Amino acid sequence: MKNYYIFFGPPGSGKGTQAKKVAEKLTLPIISTGEILRQEIEMKSEIGLKAQKLMSQGKYVQDEVVGNLIIKRLRKKDAVNGAIFDGYPRTEFQQNFLVNKLKKFNTLGIFVAVKDAEVKRRLGGRRACVCGQTYHLKFKPAKKNGICDVCGGKLFTRPDDKPESIKTRLEVYHSLTEPLLKYWEENGRMIKVDGEQKIDKVYNDILAKLKKKN
Ligand code: AMP
After folding, report:
1. Does the beta carbon of 94 sit less than 6 angstroms from any atom of ligand 1?
2. Which ligand 1 atom sits closest to the C-alpha of 94?
3. What is the CATH number of domain 3-29+76-115+164-213?
4. Atom 8, ligand 1: which residue's CA is nearest?
């Protein structure tokens, strides 16, 4: 049976970090629409060029655009046993699309809860690398200042981590994405963890709750 785990949480909740750890543990691929979009921007593709402005402002990219990226990604061989979603779905349209697509399989939502004040503190210090690795100046510094531990790339501040964009991203998250949790909660298909704890504690909480669910 194919298993799909869908991570939810505000921007900066650490859901990407947790999704990566769970993906490794369960040997499932991680599907991060934000990551795919950033790669498209890097490649200067048509999709990337269109998405760039919206992303830097903290707004969502069109449902159709991310939907096509998802379809393409799910067809890859490594997703035969399932996948872990990070940052998708984000709107009601996307959720209906995904739920319908995965209706024959096991699905579980994982909600990493973090309050707005903590989100603002975290995102201000976040640094990213094109390889997908993220750091935080205070909480998760790179070994060598400004250089990625994994690939040696130069770290940068994502345009959407600038203060004005952070404010928009939180507003958009609360109005469009947070309401999606209701579906998973009501169907008993959601686990919730406190994302304001240390990375390893959040991860252990997720594993313990996953064990109980299975
Ligand atoms: P993330 O890396 O998940 O924080 O995503 C970064 C940005 O990419 C978001 O702020 C959106 O602009 C865009 N994005 C990522 N995933 C989606 C999605 N599922 N729907 C719409 N926009 C998305």
Report:
1. yes
2. 19
3. 3.40.50.300
4. 34
pTM, rounded to two decimals:
0.89
Active-site residue set: 15, 90, 126, 158, 169
Q: 148 — phi, psi (to 5°)? A: -70, 130
Q: Mind listing the pLDDT tens digit for each residue in 108-146?
A: 999 999 999 999 989 989 999 988 899 999 888 999 999
Q: Where are the alpha helices (DSSP H) in 7-138?
A: 15-26, 33-42, 46-57, 63-74, 92-101, 116-124
Q: Where are the domains of the chain?
A: 3-29+76-115+164-213
pLDDT digits over 137-195, tens only? Answer: 988 899 999 999 999 999 999 888 988 889 999 999 999 999 999 999 999 999 999 99
Question: Running DSSP on this structure, what letter comes out for residue 177?
Answer: I
Question: Does residue 55 line the site of ligand 1, with CB under 6 A?
Answer: yes
**Pairwise CA distance, residues 9 & 181, whole Å:** 9
